[in-house]
Amino acid sequence: MHKNWFSELIAKEVEGADPHEDRGLSIATVAVTVLAGSCFIAHQAASTGFFTSAFGPAEALLLYGTTLYVVAASVLIIAGRKSLSRDLDLGGLPFSAVAIAWLLAVFPFDFAHLADVLPGSTRFLVQWISNDVAQVLMALALLVQLALAAYSTVLRVAVYRARSGSSPRAARPA
């Protein structure tokens, strides 16, 4: 019997596929996320103007909470706990989607100051990012997060059902 890619993915997850399969991507994700988080902290500590007066405790919780979620999920994959990372995604992805939606609605940023914490020779790397560009990127990120949240939920439910032996097809009469 020919299986589709989703069925093959479920079977791979149930079998306990190589937990380090996504290790390289996870290492890169941790590096980029820690770098971005460090820049946000530097902006906040130096009061560069990147964060506007609309950046309050709720916005800080959403921004830094999402940053911590991404690092935690990636570290779990690096440590060989891919299944636990996928379980964390069930709450983390919707949280991140809500965070992005809120931050997009409030938009407590002034991207004219984004490069202020970088060394002079590297500022050109991000100077092109305006508030408008950032808002488009955040809107795209929101769509990706929503899609990933739905996909992750469907995948985890299918994996749990397969592990327990109660697949949706087994419950239907033939």
List the helices and strands and how they pair.
Layout: H1 5-15, H2 23-46, H3 57-78, H4 82-106, H5 131-164, H6 168-171
List keywords for this structure.
174 residues, mainly alpha, 6 helices, elongated, disordered C terminus
Give an overview of the whole structure:
With 174 residues, the protein is mostly helical. 69% of the residues lie in helices and 0% in strands. It has helices spanning 5-15, 23-46, 57-78, 82-106, 131-164, 168-171. It is elongated. 16% of the residues are buried.
Termini Cα gap: 17 Å
Q: What fraction strand?
A: under 5%
Kindly name the structural category. mainly alpha
SSE succession: HHHHHH
Q: Please mark out the parts with pLDDT under 50 across 5 or more consecutive residues, or reply none.
A: 170-174
Radius of gyration: 20 Å
What's the assembly state of these chains?
single chain
Helix content: 55-70%
List how many beta strands DSSP finds: 0
Number of helices: 6
* Overall average residue pLDDT: 90
The shape, in one word, is: elongated
Task: Tell me about the largest β-sheet.
Answer: none
Give a nutshell description of this structure.
The chain is mostly helical and 174 residues long. The protein has helices spanning 5-15, 23-46, 57-78, 82-106, 131-164, 168-171.
